[in-house]
Every structure is written in structure tokens, then in C-alpha cells.
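Dear support,

I submitted the protein below through the web form. The confirmation email said the job was done, but the results page showed an empty box. After a refresh the structure appeared. I'm attaching both so you can tell me whether what I see now is the final result or a partial one.
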Amino acid sequence: MLTRKPELLCPAGDQERLAAALYFGADAVYLGGEAFGMRAAPQNFTFDALRLAVKQVHAQGAKVYLTCNTLPRNDELADLPAFLEHAADCGVDAFIVADFGVLAYCKRYAEKIPVHISTQAGIVNFAAARQFYELGAQRIVTARELSLTDIAEIRAKTPKALEIECFVHGAMCVSFSGRCLLSNYLLGRDANRGACAQPCRWEYALMEKKRDGLYFPIAEDTNGTYILNSKDMCMIEHIPALVAAGIDSFKIEGRAKSAYYAAVITNAYRAAIDGYLQSPVPDYVPAPWIVDETKKVSYREYCTGFYFGDPTEDANISYAGGYVRTWDVAGVVDNADGEYITVSQRNKFCVGDTLELLERGKAPVQFTVTEMLDENGIPIEAAPHPMMKLRIRSALCPKSGALLRKQAD
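What the results page shows now:
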């Protein structure tokens, strides 16, 4: 019997990603401020922006979790109390932390805000989970190296009040719980303070000291070797197994990914979870269109991580160097009246192109562009300028926030 409805937790690297995740059904979002977060590349949120974001999210009945999951150095700690106090004043629903010192500061300077322990803490057993709970944590995010059997044991041997959150989709880090020094060694960019350059994604070969310029691939492959380049995780076809293990929150990786990515993957998992809740049986499998959605974003080939045991056969290595990308976002719907769809353009498309309309919880619908008008009502043949406003003739009537996309050339 299902005792807890799984939370769908989605990334929000900026305001556009936040809006996309909310529209497509996130129960909660996680985001970063201007400091102490593990993603320095996204725009993130100033305190003024955070305050507005919290109001927006709460108005939708969702929650905001703020990342404070870097490993701060001594000289950074002086700024932490004010950061926590300001964030608490903005109304965030939880802090995500990885460091014992940061946890202690949270309890001292923002004691009313729940604390979630990040995957960076490397929790792999029930003893560690219990200890964090006793120190005041409301939730743990398990290490990504755990199997569902491991997680089920942690669930069985920890207080019921302790929530368990796990990643179910997105990029996998080659290092234990994300603790990596490659980026620091090679580029001086600290992965443990949000600045990872992802050198694990590069192509590598061996070179012998006395044979300058003579390279030896590490594995036989016509495309070279990417021995550190992990596949992406996708657990959308295994919702019953995740629930059975006792996982309370299903987390999607990707604060540095696009708003389109946040929208499509959120929508897919929202539809999969809702489908399971309607029929919570062990052999539940999402409809084919839901699974197909996970392949309509930029992704590396998928795997199930360590959830069903150690990946000893292929080590979850992606031997392709880059991403698979077969679809591009064409525009975001502003409104529709049954005759025209008003769109904010994102990528070029033309009269005669076939587009797909994606709305929350619905299978995508294809239609052909027969007529377009610019914002002055003048007929146009192409939409070449990013963010331009235009109207597309269509009897479809999607709500604001729906997406139009086009198959990549």
C-alpha cells in the first residue's frame, strides 16, 4: 500500500527554468543563491529574486529548497551567517547542506528552516543517516553509489520522520558522491565549490614519456576512449521499484541545463508518477510517449546507475563524446484563442515546418505551420530572431507556458 506520495523535485537554475518546472508539475524546486551553491555557472538567484521566487512557488503550492552544499573554506565562513539569515527571511522551505560546519551554522542562524543533507555528504549506510537525523536533519539525499536494496535497508533502519531523497534522472558524476579534484588539478576550478569544468567528459589517451606525440588509446574504439565519461541516469520506467525502496523525493539533476530540459523532463516524470498513483501496481510502466519524452532533450545514453547493482559489465561509461540531441525548442506559448497561438520564439522555424506542441500531462501533438504573422500582423515566412513575438495559425488552444519544438536538422 502506498503510504507517501513521492515528491517530484526539479532543478531551477534561473527564473526561466523555475517557471518551466512549475508549469510542468514540480512539487518542489531546488535552486542556488549567489554563494555556497554547487553550480556556479547558472545565473542563480539574488536575495531579491529569491524572495520573489519563493512567493511564486508557494502560490503554486510547491516548495523551494536552497543549496548551501559547497565545502566552504575558512575564509568563506564569515559570510555564511548573513547568507542563511537572509535566505530564511526570504521564506525558503529547506537548506541543502553537505558540511557539518554548515549544518551547525544552519541550526544556529536559521533554526526554523529544515535541513536536507546533500548527496555530497556521501551517505551510504543507516548509521550515518541516523546520525544526521539526530543532528537535526529532516532529510538525507543518498549517495548515488547505492542500490535500491541499500536504500531500502536505510529506510527500514532509520526513523520514519527522516525523509529519503534520491536522484532519478540526469548526469552521473564519475567520482564518489561528486567529491572530485580533476577540475581543480587541470584547470584550477574547484568542483567542490560549484565550478566544475567536467574534464571527466574529455577524450583521453596514454602517452609514454620517451615517445613524445605518440598516443595510445586506453580502449579499442574507433571514436577514441572516454573512460571517465559516465552515462546519464534514467529511472522513469522503474517508478514502482523506487517507491518500494521507500524513497520520498525523486530528484532530477540539471540546474545548469536549459529551461527546455527542465520542462520536458519534469513533464515526463510528472506524467509517470501520476500514472503510477492512479494504478500503483508493481508492474506499472509509463505510456510509451512518456518514456519517449526523455529522449527529446539533450542527453547522453541512459542507464540505471547503481540502483540494480554494480554496473560491472560496462561501468556505465558513455563511449560517445557528446550529447544526443534530436529536438530543439522552437518557442514558448504566451496565449491562444483557437485561431492563432501567440509565441515567444526561441529557435528559428518557418512556414511549412512541422512542430510539436507540448502541454503538461499530455502526449505531444504535431501540426504544420501554415501561416505566421509578426507582432504587427504582417505575414512572415520565417521566425529567425530569438525572443521575437509572433502568431501561428492553429485551432489548438494551449495555455501560457506550453512549448513548441521542432525536430533538429
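Response: this is the final, complete result; the empty box was a page-load delay. The chain has two domains: 7-176+229-303, 327-407.
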